[in-house]
Amino acid sequence: MPKDFIHEIQETIAVLFASASGWHKELNMISWNGSEPGYDIREWAPDHEKSSKSVTLTEEEAAILMTVLIKRIKGQDSVGVQASQKNEYDP
């Protein structure tokens, strides 16, 4: 029996892509089933009633991802970054 998941979009941070069909790839802060909100990247139907699979990140995971992406975009080596390593973007 499928489990119902209740979500609450607490903040839309960015629309990353909008398709001609009206679906949007968004970065949102979402709380699932009343849990602590996380950074959620997924595609949404125009009415937010349907969505694709996603990636939801904690604050720490988002900070690590940001560090890795900035280094990669700048052409620096980002191999070997681990969750336990402190980075310059730690809150």
What gross morphology would you assign?
Answer: globular
Succession of helices and strands: EEEEH
What CATH architecture do you see?
Roll
**Poorly predicted spans:** none
**Average residue-wise pLDDT:** 86
- Please state roughly what percent of the residues sit in beta strands, choosing from under 5%, 5-15%, 15-25%, 25-35%, 35-45% or over 45%: 25-35%
Number of separate strands? 4
Instruction: Supply the CATH class.
Output: Mainly Beta
CATH topology: Transcriptional Co-activator pc4, Chain A
Share of residues in helices: 10-25%
Query: Kindly, what is the distance between the CA atoms of the first and last residues, rounded to a whole number of angstroms?
Result: 40 Å
How large is the count of helical segments? 1
Key words describing this protein structure:
1 helix; single chain; 91 residues; Transcriptional Co-activator pc4, Chain A; four-stranded antiparallel β-sheet
In short:
With 91 residues, the chain is of the alpha+beta class.
List the helices and strands and how they pair.
Blueprint: E1 7-18, E2 24-32, E3 38-44, E4 55-57, H1 59-73
Antiparallel strand pairs: 1-2, 2-3, 3-4
Structural features, described:
With 91 residues, this protein is of the alpha+beta class. It has one domain (7-73): Transcriptional Co-activator pc4, Chain A. 16% of the residues lie in helices and 34% in strands. It contains one helix and four strands. It has one helix at 59-73; strands at 7-18, 24-32, 38-44, 55-57. Strands 1-2-3-4 form a four-stranded antiparallel sheet. A hairpin with a 5-residue loop joins strand 2 and strand 3 (38-44). The termini are far apart.
